[in-house]
Amino acid sequence: MNQRRFGLRAASGLSLFLAVAVFALMALLTVVLGAGVYRSVVGRAEVNHEARTAMAYVTGKLRANTGEVSLEQTEVGDDMLVLSEEIGGANYETRIYAYEGTLYEIFAAAEIDFAPDQGQPIAALEAFSAEKEENALRLTVRAGGEDYAARVALWE
């Protein structure tokens, strides 16, 4: 009779150990999968933030601009937005362009030669383009493999 009780206790202990082991394994699997999903969501949120920041910055600059707006090409053929204004009798330009995966802005006197590496970085993105349409400017930024576009009305 003692041996029979010992056998039941051993079987019940083994089944309890297996239940706890399966629970622990499932908990570990849930944590590992959850971490992967979290990493993916955070990465996507960062890309989205960079693209929206770049777009909001450029559209804000355009809306605040009181001078002329023109489009030029950088030395490597990328679009560059040029906002011209006169301050104290001198002409100045704000140049917004993409260079080596970053959106840059440079504010300088109009006669100063353009040097893309001397601008202030605004946001990380893959590409920036601007296209004039009638009385508006269509802006496109590419980040994370997706295009984000905006259309800004220009005052004549």
Features:
40% helix; five-stranded antiparallel β-sheet; three-stranded antiparallel β-sheet; 156 residues; alpha+beta; single chain
What is the count of DSSP helices, taking H or I runs of 4+ residues? 1
| Biggest sheet overview | 5 strands, antiparallel
Basic shape: rod-shaped
Portion in helices: 40-55%
**What value does the average pLDDT take?**
86
Task: Give the terminus-to-terminus CA distance.
Answer: 102 Å
Structural class: alpha+beta
Q: Classify the beta-strand content into a percent band.
A: 35-45%
Radius of gyration: 29 Å
Secondary-structure element pattern, one letter each: HEEEEEEEE
Query: pLDDT below 50 for ≥5 consecutive residues: which ranges?
Result: none
Number of strands: 8
- For the biggest β-sheet, the strand order reads 1-2-3-4-5
Please, could you describe this protein's structure?
The chain has about 160 residues and is α+β, with helices and mostly antiparallel strands. The protein has a domain of about 100 residues. Helix content is about 40%, strand content about 40%.
In short:
With about 160 residues, the chain is α+β, with helices and mostly antiparallel strands.
Secondary structure elements and their pairing?
Layout: H1 2-64, E1 68-73, E2 79-87, E3 90-99, E4 102-109, E5 120-124, E6 127-133, E7 136-143, E8 146-153
Antiparallel strand pairs: 1-2, 2-3, 3-4, 4-5, 6-7, 7-8
